């Protein structure tokens, strides 16, 4: 059974995770062992993918394969998580969505914790058919219109905590999507470079070149 040498998660309990074995390069291997706080004499150890960034992986691979220079990190999860306790340090906790206007300008979310008096909701209609059995439209609200939320705006402590969790999950998802988009963009640029290079060497012409051209 494989166990991560850093966070101690087990593969049997977390089958969705990828576990990487120690690298063969002695210098990189030593860095891995230092992070895991293991002795140099250890022969087998694993680190899960939660401690690597997208740029640590090779491109154009069918399965996750680390680059030869990839070194695990202890604080990957810390970059994505904001501790709820630190947000709730006093009774005047504030979340200002206006600070995120530039980042979530086009983002919409369904929020059930605020009243209709404080927000303007728009209904998304189903234009596909006039059938009476069509699905009812949902209400969506633009986050940048929310302004500032304080703990005292919520009647129940549980609702406030649920709100914090929902906000943090949305932020984490945004960070992950940005990383994924960046990685995909870099792949597209590499493919474009390969296609152009093949064209210059006359190794790619005619219909095949047109099919592979990325616009």
UniProtKB/TrEMBL annotation:
It comes from the Eukaryota. Residues 1-75 form the THAP-type domain. This is THAP-type domain-containing protein. Keywords: Coiled coil, DNA-binding, Metal-binding, Zinc, Zinc-finger. It holds the Pfam family THAP. The lineage of its organism: Eukaryota, Metazoa, Ecdysozoa, Arthropoda, Hexapoda. Residues 167-201 form a coiled coil. PANTHER family: THAP DOMAIN-CONTAINING, THAP DOMAIN-CONTAINING PROTEIN 10. One of its GO terms (molecular function) is sequence-specific DNA binding. InterPro entries: THAP1/10 (IPR026516), THAP_Znf (IPR006612), THAP_Znf_sf (IPR038441).
């Amino acid at each position: 059974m494989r166990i991560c040498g850093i966070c101690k998660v087990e593969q049997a309990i977390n089958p969705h995770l990828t576990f990487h074995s120690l690298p063969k390069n002695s210098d990189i291997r030593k860095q891995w062992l230092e992070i895991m706080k293991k002795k140099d004499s250890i022969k087998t150890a694993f680190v899960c993918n939660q401690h690597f960034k997208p740029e640590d992986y090779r491109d154009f691979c069918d399965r996750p394969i680390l680059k030869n220079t990839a070194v695990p990190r202890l604080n990957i999860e810390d970059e994505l998580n904001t501790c709820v306790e630190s947000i709730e340090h006093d009774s005047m906790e504030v979340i200002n969505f206006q600070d995120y206007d530039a980042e979530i300008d086009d983002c919409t979310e369904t929020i059930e914790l605020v009243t209709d008096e404080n927000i303007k909701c728009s209904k998304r209609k189903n234009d596909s058919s006039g059938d009476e059995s069509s699905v009812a439209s949902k209400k969506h609200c633009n986050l940048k219109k929310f302004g500032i939320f304080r703990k005292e705006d919520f009647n129940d402590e549980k609702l406030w905590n649920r709100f914090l969790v929902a906000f943090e999950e949305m932020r984490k998802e945004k960070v992950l999507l940005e990383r994924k988009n960046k990685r995909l963009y870099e792949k597209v640029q590499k493919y474009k470079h390969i296609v152009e290079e093949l064209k210059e060497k006359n190794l790619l012409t005619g219909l095949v070149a047109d099919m592979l051209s990325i616009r």
